[in-house]
Design goal:
5-stranded mixed β-sheet; 172 residues; 7 strands; two-stranded antiparallel ribbon; 33% helix; alpha/beta
């Protein structure tokens, strides 16, 4: 049994000694353990959020339709260079946007609508991170794919032609 006692006072005159007060702490200890147990059993821990991502196999190169493809090159300081079509024959001039604003989201949504209207199929986005981009930029562009509901996207190696376009735009 847990108890709390007061030390006796050093009264040497022979005065009457008073009874030592005793406080039983058993109930308080029981209550503390009950509360700890209750909160341990009722608390839920934070669950990790993940992104499902399927990567292509290196041995099986896939051809991408030029009319449905949009290439997004990730550069320095959250800058993004994008173009429709292939690198050799882009259907528009390469556009420069930022990941921090609405620029890339508007481009993804408008191009997705255009491709769906023209071909009846969804947009294919090729994401090409450069060595100047950071991991957070890749996560942000993958979040944009989910937000804009782009059905098909892939992370691929950046080519020398894309790097030259990025150097020209001063984002590499």
């Amino acid at each position: 049994m847990a108890e709390l006692t007061n030390p006796s006072s050093g009264n040497s005159r022979g005065a009457r000694s008073s009874a030592v007060p005793r406080v039983d702490l058993t109930a308080m200890v029981d209550l503390a353990f009950l509360l700890i147990t209750f909160f341990m059993l009722t608390t839920t821990l934070a669950k990790q959020n993940g992104i499902d991502l399927s990567m292509p196999v290196d041995d099986d190169p896939q051809e991408v339709s030029a009319g449905r493809s949009m290439t997004v090159c990730l550069g320095d300081n959250t800058k993004v260079l994008w173009y429709m079509g292939t690198q050799d024959h882009p259907s528009n001039n390469p556009q420069l946007n930022s990941l921090s604003g609405d620029g890339i989201r508007k481009a993804l949504m408008s191009n997705s609508k255009d491709v769906l209207r023209k071909t009846g199929k969804g947009l294919i986005v090729l994401i090409k991170p450069s060595d100047k981009s950071v991991y957070g930029d890749l996560v942000n562009i993958l979040d944009e794919m989910k937000v804009t509901e782009v059905p098909t996207y892939a992370i691929v190696e950046i080519s020398d032609g894309d790097l030259d376009m990025m150097r020209t735009s001063r984002i590499y």
